[in-house]
């Protein structure tokens, strides 16, 4: 496969897992992250497993226009094409609305929404230039479909991502470029979720060690969302098998959200 996947936020956790899964599926992978050491480490792992030149790490701040423009140019120079853009950068801050700081709210919007816009804009230009019927996929959340208590900034940004995905899909349909959001359930073992356990425990009035089970009990399939669940759906919507689908917000929630 000659196709190139560009993963924003690919230097750790879910993003790194998806980079390795895409490499295993045959993609060459451009790994962009705010932390260049993390990006290079993931790239080195992929190259050691699948051969030199299969991956490269890039430093980028998705919230800064000049950085995203430079990233697109660097990926283009290194790989010569972009077939799949995966926006996996994200951040969450938890607090009651009466205590939610403007800086935290703005950070949520910048990382979860503005960065997605900038990256989609710049990499769609490359796809259009080369006549590539590419794929743009955003890692979103069930919080982009249902409000989330004490997570107003995150939920607002994720709801915005759904609207942006639909608008991008309409803009890019004439070029054969499809756009989707993957609406994840709770990644209970992820560092992001684990970091919020004290706040969630306070919100729910339970002990931190009880939080995971509380969220599992909400899921009809009775488990959290795993990284592999995300990769499975990602590979389908990245493939030609999903060529007639665009603008969708795809639930990966174990039945917790069904619309």
Explain how this protein is built.
It is globular and about 55 Å long. The chain is an alpha/beta fold. It has helices at 13-24, 36-50, 65-79, 102-130, 152-172, 191-195, 197-204, 211-216, 227-238; strands at residues 4-8, 28-33, 55-59, 84-87, 135-141, 178-184, 248-252. It has a seven-stranded parallel beta sheet with strand order 3-2-1-4-5-6-7, sandwiched between helices.
Which helices and strands occur, and which strands form pairs?
Elements: E1 4-8, H1 13-24, E2 28-33, H2 36-50, E3 55-59, H3 65-79, E4 84-87, H4 102-130, E5 135-141, H5 152-172, E6 178-184, H6 191-195, H7 197-204, H8 211-216, H9 227-238, E7 248-252
Parallel strand pairs: 1-2, 1-4, 2-3, 4-5, 5-6, 6-7
Helix pairs in contact: 1-2, 1-9, 3-4, 4-5
EC number: 1.1.1.140
Organism: Pantoea coffeiphila
Protein name: Sorbitol-6-phosphate 2-dehydrogenase
Give a short synopsis of this structure.
By secondary structure, the chain is of the alpha/beta class.
Indicate how many domains the architecture comprises: 2
CATH C-level label of the largest domain: Alpha Beta
Mean pLDDT: 96
For CATH, the homologous superfamily of the largest domain is named as: NAD(P)-binding Rossmann-like Domain
Give the topology string: H per helix, E per strand. EHEHEHEHEHEHHHHE
Major sheet: arrangement of strands? 3-2-1-4-5-6-7
Poorly predicted regions: none
Coarse structural class: alpha/beta
Count the beta strands. 7
β-strand amount = 15-25%
Question: What percentage of residues falls in helices of 4 or more residues?
Answer: 40-55%
Shape: globular
How would a textbook summarize the main sheet? 7 strands, parallel
Secondary-structure arrangement, i.e. CATH architecture of the largest domain: 3-Layer(aba) Sandwich
Number of helices: 9
Calculate the terminal CA-CA distance, rounded to whole Å: 35 Å
Q: Say what the CATH topology of the largest domain is.
A: Rossmann fold
The whole-angstrom Rg is: 18 Å
């Amino acid at each position: 496969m000659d196709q190139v996947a560009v993963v924003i936020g690919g230097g750790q956790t879910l993003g790194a897992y998806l980079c390795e899964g895409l490499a295993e599926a045959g993609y060459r992978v451009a790994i962009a992250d705010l932390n260049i050491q993390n990006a290079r480490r993931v790239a080195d792992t992929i190259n050691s497993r699948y051969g030199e030149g299969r991956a490269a790490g890039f430093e980028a701040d998705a919230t800064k226009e000049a950085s995203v423009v430079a990233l697109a140019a660097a990926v283009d120079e290194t790989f010569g094409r972009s077939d799949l853009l995966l926006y996996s950068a994200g951040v969450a801050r938890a607090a009651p609305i009466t205590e939610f700081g403007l800086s935290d709210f703005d950070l949520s919007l910048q990382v979860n929404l503005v960065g997605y816009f900038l990256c989609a804009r710049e990499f769609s230009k490359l796809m259009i230039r080369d006549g590539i019927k590419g794929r743009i996929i955003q890692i979103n959340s069930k919080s982009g479909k249902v409000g989330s208590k004490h997570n107003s900034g995150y939920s607002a940004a994720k709801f915005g991502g759904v609207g942006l995905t639909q608008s991008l899909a309409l803009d890019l349909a004439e070029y054969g470029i499809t756009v989707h959001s993957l609406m994840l359930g709770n990644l209970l073992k992820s560092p992001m979720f684990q970091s919020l356990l004290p706040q969630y425990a306070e919100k729910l009035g339970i002990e931190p060690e009880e939080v995971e089970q509380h969220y599992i009990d909400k899921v009809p399939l009775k488990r959290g969302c795993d990284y592999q669940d995300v990769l499975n759906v990602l590979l389908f919507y990245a493939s030609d098998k999903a060529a007639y689908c665009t603008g969708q917000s795809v639930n990966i929630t174990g039945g917790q959200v069904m619309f």
